[in-house]
Automatic annotation (TrEMBL):
Function in brief: Catalyzes the formation of 4-diphosphocytidyl-2-C-methyl-D-erythritol from CTP and 2-C-methyl-D-erythritol 4-phosphate (MEP).
Domain of life of the source: Bacteria
Provenance organism: Antribacter soli
Gene Ontology molecular function terms on file: 2-C-methyl-D-erythritol 4-phosphate cytidylyltransferase activity
HAMAP family attached to this UniProt entry: IspD
Chain positions of site Transition state stabilizer: 15, 22
Protein's name in the database: 2-C-methyl-D-erythritol 4-phosphate cytidylyltransferase
Lineage: Bacteria, Bacillati, Actinomycetota, Actinomycetes, Micrococcales
Catalysis: reaction(s): 2-C-methyl-D-erythritol 4-phosphate + CTP + H(+) = 4-CDP-2-C-methyl-D-erythritol + diphosphate
EC number: 2.7.7.60
Similarity annotation: Belongs to the IspD/TarI cytidylyltransferase family. IspD subfamily.
Length: 237
């Protein structure tokens, strides 16, 4: 039985605002997607990688990731879709019968520690069919509705019960396939894609479990995140 990791890298990175897709933006001289791929492979619990590339850039991503001498697991590259959900669904179609566990990880989380990858896979292999790393929320969160001139606060959820979730998210393959099949139908009907895979599993009414996340698995969304990641790398060097 094997573990396949789908590495989502097909996004454009609108909020980062560079003139190339976010996954190819460099951090410490290497593209974000390569950092993430190396860390997944270094976990020792991933048997193969499928990377979703931006449209028209599968050859470039192959050059970057599949030819990297530090990555000793097989790498396949496919073009992603218009949304993250569609990209994951495309990657999932590349899973083989032996891949009983599937991880989904964002290239936008390049500094994910291999220990976090292992924690997620161990939790799935111990019997939890859908596992998500999560961190406590440190800000007070307000629920709002649109209002005239300013949004109206309608609630303050108890933050001790909230978690900010990260990737890699890990799943029993059959469950993730079912969740994506149902999610694709919903996305077509409602023109709304899920922002994470666990959300699709929850929508099926199936259980999702949380394991402790890691600060280093933070997501690169804006320039400030990239600046922080550069500092973290320099500190580690
Ligand atoms: N059509 C898409 C959109 C996103 N992603 C991937 O999903 C992850 C999380 O998405 P996000 O950080 O939102 O990336 P972008 O969509 O690129 O960013 P933005 O929303 O700022 O454009 C990223 O690794 C991104 O490459 C993907 O594979 N396919
Ligand atoms: C999957 C994810 O990384 C979990 O936090 C996140 O939802 C990615 O989506 P977004 O496009 O940055 O909202």
């Amino acid at each position: 039985m094997t573990t396949l990791a789908i590495l989502t890298a097909a996004g454009s990175g609108t909020r980062l605002g560079r003139d190339l897709p976010k996954a190819l933006v460099e951090l410490g001289g290497l593209p974000l997607v390569l950092h993430a791929a190396r860390r997944l492979a270094a976990s020792g619990v991933v048997d193969g990688l499928v990377v979703t590339a931006p449209a028209g850039l599968a050859a470039v991503v192959t050059e970057v990731v599949a030819r990297d001498p530090h990555i000793e697991v097989p790498v396949r590259v496919v073009e992603g879709g218009a949304t993250r959900q569609a990209s994951v669904a495309t990657g999932l179609r590349m899973a083989r019968a032996a891949d009983d566990v599937v991880l989904v990880h964002d290239a936008a989380r390049p500094l994910v520690p291999p220990s976090l990858v292992r924690r997620v896979v161990e939790a799935v292999r111990s019997g939890h069919r859908a596992v998500v790393p999560g961190l406590p929320v440190t800000d007070t969160i307000k629920q709002v509705i649109p209002g005239p001139g300013a949004e109206l606060v309608v609630g303050t959820p108890d933050r001790s019960l909230l978690r900010a979730v990260q990737t890699p998210q890990g799943f029993e393959r059959g469950l993730l396939v079912r969740a994506h099949e149902a999610g694709a139908v919903r996305a077509a009907a409602e023109h709304l894609a899920a922002t994470d895979d666990a959300g699709l599993v929850e929508a099926l009414g199936e259980k999702v479990h949380i394991v402790p996340g890691d600060d280093l698995a933070f997501k690169i969304t804006t320039e400030r995140d990239l600046w922080l990641a550069e500092l973290v790398l320099q500190e580690a060097a």
